[in-house]
Amino acid sequence: MPLPDPEIVVLGGGPAGSSAALRLAVDGARVTIVSPPRVPATRLESLPVGGQALCDLPGLRRALDTSAVAVVARRELLWRERPETLEVTRDAPFLIDRARFDRACLAEAIRAGARLETSRARRDGPEIVLEDGRRWHPVAILDARGRRGLRARAPGLPQMVALPFRASDPSGVMRIAAVPDGWLWCAAGPQDRAEGALFCRAERVAGLDATERAALVTEALRSVGLLGAASGTPSAASLDWAETAMPEARVIRIGDRALARDPIAAHGLVHALRSAAQGSAAALTLLEGGNADAVREFVESRHRADVLAAKAVTEAAYASQARIGTGFWSDIARDPRPETASPPQDIDVTRRYALAAPLSRGAALIEGRIRWSPVIEFPASARRATHVGALRAETLTRLIGPPAPLGALLERLETQVPPTVARTIVRELLDGGALSPV
């Protein structure tokens, strides 16, 4: 007897696709992953505490435990005028074996009940057409096929490629260093086995053969006191994104298919896991007959906010480099003294402020599904928040809606939360542009 068609199809079996399918299967959806046989990338990757918290399902936790090979004990940064070293004593990132993590995520999704279809397939609008002619009409499609086909790029930032390498370095050390032809990242796991990549302009390596690329990597490593060798072919590494995260109704792009981060902004795996959680919630909402307009607004607003954040972090990271002023770096337009994004240390409590925008209705993720909810808008990041701190948007608007000096707004908030929490909320509102002077 043939199996029933899937309710939800996930295109791609990488970490975004597999973790989304795992979440869907755990929620009881009939989900199929379509992923031809692939060889996962062999590399180490750091996963910060925030990313570890996204592994909140038993299956994802097992995948994390299986693939974590070390804890980052020390960070060394050769980026600004003076070398910086940070001994990590708490909230340390894990070093993840990406190939092992990818395989474990896929295995956990199948263990939870997701099916795996290894034949090739294409998307024809809302249909999935397999190479044997079968046609599926799922309720939702999650497209997690990687950065292939992305169009948009950040103006002013270079088109980058990654040249992977292996080196010898003390275990538990993670390094980021500016070098004349770009920058490099590497981290060392057990047995002092370090892996990383040199990131440089695409045109810098265009036309170079394997020997010439290896020489470029070797020289970059030597400039920061490391010995190593190239270990693979170049791969795309620029900040790129899709113009829309929902190109059609019921089709949702997740992971690198929606936003491929420049590694200088770090933690692409965090974005993959987060977008998988959001995408699976969107698919389940559609499966259960939820509001399709709310799903689209939520997916697109999160996509816009993610793109803005990635652009800001990437531009700030390149701009903060002050160690080298020649070669690659002399071609990048940058402010040598970028403004800090952190809020001011002191708040002028005498100045009058008001909410930049009135309370509005927005789509929000509530208890694992997407629903309409009152939200406060943060113009600086395109973020829409149902809560700021512990206060709901409607409560916060009622407390600070009427214009007043910040001191008075703080007093209103302190009727609901402790003074330190009230100041934290005000700082967040100011930094996000949700409060503006009048």
Automatic annotation (TrEMBL):
Name of this protein: NAD(P)/FAD-dependent oxidoreductase
Taxonomic lineage is: Bacteria, Pseudomonadati, Pseudomonadota, Alphaproteobacteria, Rhodobacterales
Q: Which UniProt keywords apply?
A: Oxidoreductase
The enzyme's first-digit EC class, named in words, is oxidoreductase
Its EC number(s): 1.-.-.-
UniProt xrefs under InterPro entries: FAD/NAD-bd_sf
Q: Which Gene3D superfamilies match?
A: 3.30.9.100, FAD/NAD(P)-binding domain (3.50.50.60)
Q: Name one GO molecular function term.
A: oxidoreductase activity
